[in-house]
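Reopening this ticket.

The earlier resolution said the output was attached, but the attachment link was broken on my side. Pasting everything inline this time so it's all in one place.
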Amino acid sequence: METMDLLKNRMSLRKYKDTPIKKEHLDTILESAMRAPTAGNMMLYSIIVIEDQEKKNILSKSCDNQPFIAKAPIVLIFLADMQRWFDYYNYSNVKEYCSLKNIDYNTPDEGDLMLAIADATIAAQNAVVAAEALNIGSCYIGDIAENYEIHKELLNLPEWVYPAAMLCVGYYPEEQKKIISPRFDKEYIVFKETYKRLNNDDFKDMFIEREKRLSPENKAQAANFGQFMYARKTGSEFSKEMTRSIREMLKNWRGEKL
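Inline output:
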């Protein structure tokens, strides 16, 4: 498939063909993920391949109760991972080296976390593109950021490892029709040289099509698309849980007691 067609026609797939992922296809996806750009060639991520049905069942509940997760042939979890490098620094006697050279020795901080999250998500997107080229659909699950304590135990995560992204992957069903979600026009997303803050006229034009797609049921609950989206996403209970969970993760990352 031509690269541009692939990128333009990719959709989030939540229904999968009842067929296991071929080993050679999984290997290609993982190898493609590992060729992703990475900070300093450090590969500040790890990937957990989950095929165990019991684990998928747990994830389908802990990730905002989404049953289709349990039906995905494979779930890939991309971890922001600073643990491996600091274990290596320990192996390499870096603390002693720093003492001799009068260099401060610091454990991972928030900057390292952000860098590792970027590495992990870039690798995840490489996996998405590779999978799509093999007629294997995928769906990002942002809810892996919720219920940190459950996921930490389930995945045996040490102190400086955090689940940055999760993908459900599986072959497209033969009857699946491509449903391509529209995106905002470029003028509202891409700016030259400096950031542009949108005004009321911009928002009116930007959201005109999405306002049209509000169902009668949605309109009974909200006067406009902004109110609908706040209730559905930003102000929702799962969003509050995600914030709580990330705060707990940060405590653990900083070495504070949970």
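Reporter confirms the inline version is readable. The chain has a mean pLDDT of 96. The chain is about 50% helix and 10% strand.
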